[in-house]
Amino acid sequence: MAEKNAGYETKILCPCKDCRNLTHHGIDIVYEHLIIRRMDPTYTIWFHHGEIEDITETVSQVNSSDAFNLITSAYMGANHYASTSEERRDNDFTQSLEDAETPLYPGCAKYTKMFAIVALYKHKVMNGWTDNSFDGLLEMLGDMLPEHNVILKSVYSVRKFIKEFDLGYDKIHACANDCYLFRKEIKNLQSCPKCGSSR
């Protein structure tokens, strides 16, 4: 079923617990990942792979969605919301949840705004793209996708969106030869303790 509903001709999203449906791989690689790394335990309905979600799902199932959990932790744990009224906080939370779960464009059943932004930003970071090149990609995607798509148009707006959900990241320097990550007790060193190369 997953192969029939593949996004690319030869690749599908990998649902292993490391890739978490953010990376496309060949079917053989996905199979290998599932055997070695195991399945992402939060991916219970294979909607990225063609499984049709039951429309009559219960409130408890909706509450367990990734977007719901993400937004709950971002809003309910934030100190700057402590003094606001419960009603305003509930409205902000509901609006953010709806925004995150909005289809990428009208009629799109495969991708939400949140999934698209996180997947594209991960691709930018993993491949070392400049902000200018990523801005260009976002603009081009906005033009290529059907009208009324919700893809963000700039790195600034992507970072603002991600920050709203407290999805920050820390950059960690690494040895050029992949010997060490400069963190914890060696975070202030200027050269690799194993091979001596500069950070």
Structural write-up:
With 199 residues, this protein is mainly α. Helix content is 40%, strand content 3%. It is built from seven helices and two strands. The protein has helices at 27-36, 59-63, 66-76, 86-100, 113-126, 131-144, 155-164; strands at 11-13, 24-26. Strands 1-2 form a two-stranded antiparallel ribbon. Mean pLDDT is 76; it is low at 55-64 and 78-84.
List the helices and strands and how they pair.
Blueprint: E1 11-13, E2 24-26, H1 27-36, H2 59-63, H3 66-76, H4 86-100, H5 113-126, H6 131-144, H7 155-164
Helix pairs in contact: 3-4
Question: From the alpha-carbon coordinates, what is the Rg to the nearest angstrom?
Answer: 20 Å
Strand content: under 5%
Mean pLDDT: 76
Taking pLDDT < 50 over at least 5 consecutive residues as the criterion, the unreliable ranges are 55-64, 78-84
Structural class: mainly alpha
Spatial order of the strands forming the largest sheet: 1-2
Q: What is the helix/strand order?
A: EEHHHHHHH
The largest β sheet comes out as: 2 strands, antiparallel
Helix residue percentage: 25-40%
Count of helices?
A: 7
Q: How far apart lie the N and C ends?
A: 46 Å
Number of beta-strand segments: 2
Shape field:
globular
Based on the model shown, name its key terms.
199 residues; mainly alpha; two-stranded antiparallel sheet; 2 strands
Concise overview:
This protein has 199 residues and is mainly α. Helix content is 40%, strand content 3%.
